[in-house]
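To illustrate the input format used throughout this study, we show a single complete record. The first block contains the structure-token representation of the backbone; no residue identities are included at this stage. The design step must infer an amino acid for every position from geometry alone.
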């Protein structure tokens, strides 16, 4: 997918315990400020359980650095299939 970066979400800063979810950051849209945080718009997990349902949301760049790890689209599809059900459906429209 063009202009999308995928970040595996972890429950700790050492990035050893995966939450089983991925945040898709729409980097093609640039960043925006929310309060004092620089953020990406994107699609992410709604619940704290593996392969959670997803919704449009934003994530701060700092949080992605602290609790996320950039991964390939191929790996993201394995970790969080529901994310791609949503992304593939919206991309087709």
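Output of the design step:
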């Amino acid at each position: 997918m063009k202009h999308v970066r995928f970040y595996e979400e972890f429950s700790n800063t050492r990035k050893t315990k995966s939450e089983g979810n991925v945040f898709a950051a729409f980097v093609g849209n640039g960043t925006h400020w929310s309060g004092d945080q620089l953020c990406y718009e994107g699609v992410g997990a709604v619940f704290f359980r593996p392969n959670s349902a997803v919704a449009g949301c934003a994530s701060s760049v700092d949080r992605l650095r602290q609790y996320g790890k950039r991964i390939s689209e191929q790996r993201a599809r394995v970790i969080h299939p529901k994310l791609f059900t949503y992304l593939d459906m919206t991309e087709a429209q």
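Structural context for interpreting the output: The beta strands are 5-10, 18-25, 31-34, 37-45, 54-60, 68-71. The chain has a mean pLDDT of 96.
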